[in-house]
Amino acid sequence: MQDVLIHLGHGFLTVFQPINIFVLMIGLVLGLLVAVLPGLTLVMGVVLALPFTYKMGITPAVILLTAMYITGTYGGAFTAILFRIPGEPIDVPLLWDGYEMAKKGEPAKALGWTLFAALAGGLVAAVVMVAASEPVAKIALSFSAPEYFALVFFGLASVVCLGGGSQVNAFISLFIGLLIASVGVDGTYGIERFSFGIDTLRDGIEYLGVMVGAYGLGEVLSRLERGFTSPTLEKVGKIETKLPSTAELMSVKGSFARSSILGILIGIVPGAGATIASFLSYGVEAQYGRRRKEMGTGIAEGIVAPQAAATASVGGAMIPLLTMGIPGSGATAIILGAFMLQGVQPGPQVFVSQPDLIYAIFASVFVALIGMCLLGYFAIKALVKVLDFREAAVSAFVVMFCFIGALAARNNVNDLWTIVAFGAVGYLFEKFRFPIAPMVLGTILGPLAENYFLTAMISAEGDWTTFFTRPVSLVLMLLSAVTLVFPTYRNWRESRAGG
Amino acid sequence: MKREAKGAGAACLAPIHKGESMLALRRAAPYAAVLMVGAYLYWLALGFEFPHVPGRLGPDAWPKMVLGLLLVTCLVGLVNSFRRVDVPVVRGGAGDTHPVLPGDIPDEDLGPSRYGLVAMGFALFLAYPIALEWLGFPIATFLLMALFMLVGQWRNVPAVLLISLLGSLALFYIFRGIVYVSLPLGTGQFQTFTLWLAQLLQMR
Questions:
Q1: Per residue in A198-246, pLDDT tens?
Q2: Which residues of A touch B64 (CB under 8 A)?
C-alpha cells in the first residue's frame, strides 16, 4: 500500500508539470464543450482529439483524452437540466428528474446535485481504481489464453445484452465487427482473408477508422438527414450552482453508494460504458430506492443516481484497460488507441515496466475531477454559449477532424476511404436501428478473441472444454451465459405475462 | 421521443395483415442484405487455401464460426420481421437512448427525412479524398467546409465563406505547422500554391 501511495505522489508531481497540467486543462474545457453540444458525443469528442496526440508524449496524450472522458460524463448535465437538451445519451435520465427540479424553480439546486454526484462518484471510483488496479494486474499476470478468451467473450456478451433494444440487431452488429477484424493477412498462416486484392484491405481495417467513420461521419449524416435541426436555446436568466447541505447529502447516501458501486462495476465490464451505467443506475433507483415512487417528479435521488454512476464508470473502465489492455468502454477504446500509437501496449507488464506512466494517469483522474467541478461551478455560463453556434458549421469542423484524424494516423490518403465507407455504415446502422457499439467493440476485440481462442485450442489440442475446466474462465463463461440468456428470459416472461 | 416500456405485453407476435407486407419487407431488407453478403463471404471462406495441420484449426475457422452465427442471427431477424415482433424496451436499458433526440424533440417534429441532403453530404465525403490529392489540403478543405455548410442549409454565404477560409487556414496551420502531420500538397499549380501558403504562414 505504501508503494502505491509513493507512486501516486510521483504521479501527482508528473501531472503538475507544465505541459501535463496544460493539456489537462485543455482536455477539461474540450470535454465540457463536447458534452454540451448535442451533435457531439463523448466518444466522438475523444476520437476528434486523437490526432492532436500523435506528436505528444504518451503521458500528456493519455491525460488529455482521460480528462475529456471524465468531463464528458458531466458537462451535458447543464443543458439537460436547464434547457432540456441532453448533450449526451448519458444525460437523458437527467431529463426525468433534473429538468423537473429546474421546472419547480430550483435549477441551481439541481446543478448542485449533479456537481456533488459527479465529484463524489468520480472520486470513489478513482480510489477504487488506484487500490484495485495493481492487485488485478498481478492476477492478470497469471492468466493464460483460456482466461483471456473468456474475459473477451464476457465483454462481447455484455455489450450485446446490456445495450437494450433489439438483441438480434446487436448480435448482427457484433458479428459484423468481428468479421471486419478478420479482414487482411492472417498473422499465423499468412493467407489473405476477404481482402479482394485491394492493398488497403490486405493491411487489415484499423479499428480507429471504423470508430471515426461510424461515430463521426455516420452521426453527422444522420443529423444532416434532418437538415441540422438544432434545438433552440431558451433564455435562462441566471446559470448558477447551489450545493446541497450536509443534511441533504446524508439523506441520499444510500442512492449515492448504490450508484457509485454500480457505476464502477459497469465501467469494469468490458463493453459497457457511462450511458449504460447512467440508465441502469436510474432504473435500479426507480425499483429499489427509498423514494422510488417519487422518481420522475424532480427529486435528488433521480439526479444523483445517473450522474454518480456515469462519472464513477470512468474509474471502473480504466481498470481493465490499464491492467489487461481490454477497453471497458468506447472512450477507453480510443485511449487504448493512443497508447498503441505511442508503441505502448497496456496490460499487467506496464505496471512493472512503466509505473510512473500508470500512476500519472491515476493522479490525473483525481486532478481532472476537481478541475472539472471548478470549471463547472465557475465557467459553465460561458461554455453553454457554444449552443448558439450553427450546427452546420460545427458539423463541418467535425467532418474535418474525422478526415484529419484518419489521415494523420498513417499519413495514407487511402485510409480516408475507410472512414467514408464506415460513415455510410454508421448512417445505415442508425437508420435501421442497429447499435454501433457492438460493431466497434467487435472490431477492437476481434483480433484478441481470435488469437486467444486459437491459442487456447492449440494448447488444449482441440479440446474446447478447456474454457470450462479452469476456474476463472469457467466463472467468466458462466457469467457470459447468464448475460446472454437473461434478456431473452425476461422478454419471454413479459410476453407470457401479457398474454 | 421517449420510447416507453410497453410493459408486459410488449412482445406482440401476430400474423401479418394486408397492407403491412410492404412494411414487413422494409423491415426485412437489412437482414436479407446482410444474409446475402454473409453467405457470399462464407462461400469465400470455404475456398481459403492454407497448409492443413492435423488437429489444428486453420485461419478459416474463426471467420467461418462468426459467419455461421451471423447467418443464423440474420435468419432470426428475417423471421421476426414477418412476425411483427415489437421488441420490448425496459427503462434503464441503454436502448432507451436511441429515439431520444436533442431537446427531446419527437421524430415527427423534426420534419421529414431529407435523403437528398444525405446523398449530397456523402458525395462531398467521397469527393474529398480525390480533391485532397489533386488540389492539396487548404483548397480541398476550404471547398469541403463551404459546400458542406451550404448543403447543411446554412444560407448565409459570406459567413460560410469566411468560416471556411479561416477554418481551413487554421487547420492547415495547426496540423502542418504545430502537430507536423504530413498533409497532401496537391499537384502542379495547386502544389505551388500550398507551398506558397505554408511559406506565408511561416511553416517549415
A1: 888 888 888 888 888 888 888 889 889 888 765 555 555 566 778 888 8
A2: none
Residue B47: closest CA among B32, B33, B65, B59: B59
Task: Report the SS3 class of residue A178.
Answer: helix
The pLDDT tens digits of the residues spanning A361-374 come to 999 999 999 999 99
Nearest to B118 among A221, A491, A495 (CB): A221
Residue from B181, B182, B185 whose CB has the most chain A CBs within 10 Å, to mutate: B181
The domain total for chain A is 1
* Helix spans in A270-324 (H): 274-288, 300-324
Note down the domain range covering A453. 2-497
A224–B51 CB contact, under 8 Å: no
Prediction ipTM score: 0.81
Q: Are A232 and A414 in contact (CB under 8 A)?
A: no
Write the CB contacts of A70 (distance below 8 Å, at least 6 apart in sequence). A28, A31, A122, A311, A314, A365, A368, A369, A372
**The Cα angle at residue A178 between residues A136 and A61, in degrees rounded to 5:** 50
Say how many CB pairs under 8 Å bridge A and B: 260
Are B88 and B9 a contacting pair, CB within 8 Å? no
Could you give the CA distance from residue B96 to residue A118 in angstroms, rounded to a whole number?
Answer: 22
